[in-house]
Amino acid sequence: MSRLKLQQICKYYGATTALASGDLLLERGEIHVLIGANGSGKSTLCKVIAGSVRPDGGTFELNGKPVMLFGPQAAREMGICLFYQELSLANSLSIAQNINLYHLPTHAGGLIDDAELNKRAEHYISKFETVIGEGFTPDAPVAKLRPDQKQLVEIMKTLASEAEILIFDEPTSALDRSQVECFFSILRELKEEGRSIIFISHRMDEIFDIADRITVIRDGTTVSSRLIEETDHSTVIRDMIGEQPEAAALEASLAPQAEKKTESCLVAEGLSGAHIRNVGFSLAKGEILGLGGLHGQGQSTLLRTLFGAEKLQSGTLLLNGEAVHPTNPRAAIKNGFSYVSGDRVRDGVITGRSIMENVSPIHFLKDKTFLAFPSVLARIIEPALGALNTKYSSLGASISSLSGGNQQKVVIARWLTNPPDILLLDDPTKGIDLSAKSELFALVRKLADEGMAIILYSSEDGELLAHSDRILVFNNGSVSRELLGEDKTRFNLYEAAYSGAQ
Amino acid sequence: MTKAISFKSRMATLLRRFPFIPALGMLMLLFILNGIAEPNSMTVRALKGVASTYLALVFLSVGQTFVVYTADIDLSVGAILSLVNVSIVVIMSQFGGEPYVVLLALGAGIAIGALCGLMNGIVVSGLRMQAIVATFATSILISGIALWVLPVAGMPAPSLFWKVYGGRSYGIPNVFFFIAILIALLAIMAKTGLVTKLLAVGNGQLSAYQSGLSVTRIRIYGYIICGIFAALAAFCITGDTASGDPLVGGAMTLSSVAAVVLGGTALSGGIGSAFGSAIGAIIIGLISSLVFYAGVPSQWQNLAQGATILVVLMLGVLASKRINQ
Amino acid sequence: MTIMQHSNPQESRSALFVYLKNPLLVAFILIVLLLTAGEALSPGFASMEQILRLLIVAALLGIVAAGQNLVILGGREGIDLSVGGVVSLSAVLAGNVMDGSNANIIAAILVCLAAGGLVGLINGVGVTIFGIPPLVMTLGMLGVLQGLLVVIRQGIPSGLAAPALANFVSKPFLFNLPGIIWLWAAVGLLMAFLLMRTSLGHKIYAIGSNENAAYMAGVPVRLIRIMLFALSSMFAALAGICILGYSGTSFANVGDSYMLSSIIAVVLGGTPLSGGKGGYTGTMAGAFLLILMQSILTTLSIGESGRQVVFGLTLLVLLLFYGRSKALRG
Fold first, then answer.
1. C4: alpha, beta or left, given left = phi > 0 and alpha = psi -120 to 50?
2. A57 and C330: CB-CB below 8 Å?
3. Taking CB atoms and an 8 Å limit, are A361 and C2 in contact across chains?
4. Cα(A463)–Cα(A437) distance, rounded to whole angstroms?
5. Can you tell me where the transmembrane regions are (chain B) (predicted)?
6. Under a CB-based contact definition with an 8 Å cutoff, are residues B227 and B113 in contact?
7. Is residue B12 in some structural domain?
């Protein structure tokens, strides 16, 4: 009998399907890896198991008995605890308070037993003693910690539940190698104790290092579940991608474009800021410059810095030969920059407002219009949306009624009403479906052919290789290698990205 | 260089632990300024006067803090205070001013405060209504009940009541004992799991919920505590004014919010201390006495007081922002 | 085996429920019901004359609520607690400047709007540049205004409204309707035009819905927010002048009741305190509804305490329909 059995779990948010049919069989004493592309529904499935998301259908059995969870508290009582990818820490509280938040130890009189609180926290901290870094004391407030340290606190908090089913949703994304190794040795101990562990990561090597079983989710549906002995890298990747002859063909057909460099329109030298160090490049009109490397190596920061959303500390930036200093997005837009973020919920979508209002801002800024008559605006907005084959019922419909891919198209259409000179794409296809992706890249290429200069960062290496003319590989905030022409291969990209990567 | 940084970070840790430190500094400064402006303001007698007048606001602000911890707000505290004030006065005058009646009235007062808090908690947390408008609506309701209990101001409280509040024991004014009891109570409460959980909810409701806390119930507890403290504040005001008045608390609600902010508690929740709010309430009292002692012409006193409070509020918010960066 | 059937709530809601979720419609239905009930309780309640009288009072609240509406729409816990203070200040200033003479009306209006604009500017700068939460900033400002009122009123006898102003507010002005109702209608049209047919309106909704996305799309977030606070105080100042006309003489604290009732009118009209959605048409209905409720309660012989209890309960029930926050469980 499996410890946990999920069948056909589904979850919808308005028109968006977060999970179509999630299946999972979790055994005693196994480390079960869940893998799938961004937005495939892994996190939603985990949250359903941990009680924090209410499923819209499906069956849920624990130790052979059907159960109905009413919330995270109920899940905890049944021995299920989840490490939240976005962390569930209270920043102003101390490390010890966070670790023990669910069960605060008290004296007989009901007051908190500080000695016991710290002792319990120390117990979990000591497991990571060699890798926790400076300032990691039980009474230190979480707010002051580094991202990797916060992630460790969330791990400790999850471990402190001493639950029989432990779920870790991307617990290692900010950790370095030694921290990951330490964490893995703890996971193996827990496995020996008979606990069941669900583990999510995007790092293939980690997965094959720790997994007993790998379950693949694609577009909200569980597509395969195999023992580690019965699978390999390529099988997993094939399951993740599914049958997509067109995507593979696309990658091959869009081999290096003819060198058509004209005059460079943007020249950067020695750009430095919070997460970038001494970055230099030149960008020509009509060129698509790719930014590659592991996630979070400064690619996104560079784009945000160019757009004026992050502070540029030093370096020079020449736009058509004239020095510019990006101070804020408004000024950057006036200089001809544009920026599309992959985090559309944070940076892009004007939540709950109409499609028209989501497209209009750049037009207002560039044309300095004050009046906003729908009929007049529609003439400007409809072609921009049409260029991307955006599907919508009417311009007055709320953007929240659209699927993720169409929302992103609306956000991109914002820039097409008054085309910019330079388009900065910051992982623009994160969490959107395949057809939307291909339409988007077709448009990007068309824009480049019309003379727009484009910088593209994508967390999917295939996309990057297929659609950029040239790739700058980032490593720890600076450019470690430039790949062009024959060198622009997956092998070289991986080598440059992983060599010396932390 | 490193020394300076470690000093700075140690200061930051200290301030995070005791968010009321800037307010305490402000309080000291105001004491000194008061002393310079009018040396007589430092006498036990004068201090007793300030304490008896502002003790009600101190309790009210302390109560407000437990709600603000979770990023909520309670605009009905003044109405609760009024209701408890008239209720206990009516009970005491109906059944005579004997000690056991007074105790009974106090018990009833606390129960009324707790019930009002429970109602607010259910409305805001249980029914998920917006705290500002919902507690404003309950404040109208509660004021209505207060008017029903006692339609016009002026019913006197029994002498036992105000004699204890205004009296002395062992030569020391009783209000100072009340303050000491309050400080002890706050020190104990700060060590309870509930305060930690209230702060956790204030840091982020979703995170707290995902951590397995019963967010709804915790927020309701915050409102109940707030209601109880509003009842205690009503006892103070009854002791100070020696009478019942159905409108006595109306103007105090917004002052309690100001005192909470002055005390270093963030309206966005998650950070703060009830002790700081108590200090904040006394700061408001000392500002008005300073304006008086400094010889500001009478028609300018309110403006000077209002402007000073605004500046102090802004400075307080800016200071805590710097600390929490 | 249990099948957990959670149907998609958005789809399963009946059509009736969808209509009930439209605050404007509900407000209008309630207005009609209340007028009918009022007529039943005391004949003559729903007479044209009486409705006009209610509309005048509602117009005063509605003009204050216009500014409050703008600040709330701008999001980031936008709220203006100082409107009551500005109303009082403006009424007193207008009375002093006018001093019962028609010749001084223009000067009075200019002085009041300038004073209001200045107060709003300070609020806006405090909120955006110094990062003070709006509640704290405008609460502190309220204290300053109350002090300022004492200073201004000192030594000068309370000013009188100019006869033309008093007539404008309460006597028929055009088509048998008092000028104040025309003014309110103009404010309504202006607000609707501003919010729905100008780029500024789009930008206000944008910063209220997702401030960061608006910033990334080049919207001057701070400038607009300062402007919203300035407009809020100017609308309050305008209302203050009208209130002077309504009451004839200025008296202190005339504006106090407008602070929270303007917020309630906005929320009843379907603009949640979180900002970014809603509009002024609903707020107008909300303001009239609020005044109507109070008026019906005065016709009931249940005393002041009973009236307040019923009013508080009714507000709670109405608020239950609107502006509830999302459940934590997704």
1. beta
2. no
3. no
4. 9
5. 20-37, 49-68, 75-95, 101-124, 131-150, 170-190, 220-241, 247-267, 274-296, 302-320
6. yes
7. no
- How do residues B291-317 score in pLDDT, each as one tens digit? 888 888 888 888 898 899 999 888 888
**Alpha helices by DSSP H, A113-244:** 114-127, 147-160, 177-192, 204-210, 233-241
Instruction: Return the closest-CA partner of residue B247 out of B232, B256, B234.
Output: B234
Q: If contacts are CB pairs under 8 Å, which of residues 299-318 in chain B contact chain C?
A: 299-307, 309-310, 313-314, 317-318
Whether pLDDT at A45 is above 70: yes
**Within a domain: B265:** yes
Question: What does the longest C-alpha to C-alpha distance in chain C come to?
Answer: 84
Burial environment of residue B230 by CB neighbours within 10 A (0 to 12, 13 to 18, 19 or more): buried
- Which residues on chain B are in Cβ contact (under 8 Å) with C148? 303, 306
CB within 8 Å: A55 and C6: yes
Name the residue among B13, B196, B324 with its Cβ closest to that of A93.
B196
* Closest CB from A54, A348, A365 relative to C218: A365
Please, is A435 exposed, middle or buried when counting C-beta atoms within 10 Å of its C-beta (0-12, 13-18, 19+)? exposed
Q: What is the pTM of this model?
A: 0.86
Chain centroid offset of residue A439 CA? 21
**Core vs surface per residue C300-320: b (16+ CB within 10 A) or e:** eeeeebbbbbbbbebbbebbe
ipTM of the prediction: 0.86
- Given 3-state DSSP classes, what are the helix, strand and coil percentages for chain A, each rounded to the nearest 5? 40, 25, 35
* CATH at residue B253: 1.10.3470
8 A C-beta contact, residue C266 and residue C283: yes
Q: Would you call A357 and C206 a contact, using CB atoms and an 8 Å cutoff?
A: yes
Vertex C6: Cα angle to C4 and C12 (nearest 5): 150
Instruction: Say what the pLDDT of residue C155 is.
Output: 57
DSSP 8-state assignment for residue C19: H
Contact A102 B213 (CB under 8 A): yes
Model pLDDT, residue A159: 92
Tokens 């004699």 found at: B163
Tally the domains of chain B. 1
Distance of alpha carbon C84 from alpha carbon B6, whole angstroms? 47
CA Rg value for chain B: 20
C-beta atoms of B307 and C147 within 8 A: yes
Q: Does some domain include residue B13?
A: no
B323 touches chain C (CB under 8 A): no
Residue C164: CB atoms within 10 Å: 16
* Chains linked to B by 3 or more Cβ pairs within 8 Å: A, C
Q: Is A336 left (phi over 0), alpha (psi -120 to 50) or beta?
A: left
Residue A154 has pLDDT above 70, yes or no: yes
Residue B179 resides in a domain: yes
Domain span holding position B302: 18-320
Q: Is the pLDDT of residue C10 over 50?
A: no
Determine the distance in angstroms separating the CA of A148 from the nearest CA of chain C, rounded to an integer: 25
Q: Is the pLDDT of residue C329 over 80?
A: no
What domains sit in chain C, N to C, each tagged with a CATH number? Answer: 47-295 (1.10.3470)
All domains of chain A in start order, with CATH: 4-243 (3.40.50.300), 253-498 (3.40.50.300)
Selecting from A50, A92, A104 the residue whose C-beta is nearest the C-beta of B271 gives: A92
Residues of C in contact with A349 (CB under 8 A): 210, 213
User: How would residue C28 be classed by pLDDT, with cut points 50, 70 and 90?
Assistant: confident
Q: Are B213 and B221 in contact (CB under 8 A)?
A: no
Instruction: Output phi, psi for A308, to 5 deg.
Output: 85, 10
How far is A212 from chain C, CA to nearest CA, in Å? 28
- Whether B196 and A72 lie within 8 Å, measured CB to CB: no
Query: C139: how many CB neighbours lie within 10 A of its CB?
Result: 24
Q: Rounded to a whole number, what is the largest CA-CA distance in chain A?
A: 78
Taking CB atoms and an 8 Å limit, are B16 and A92 in contact across chains?
yes
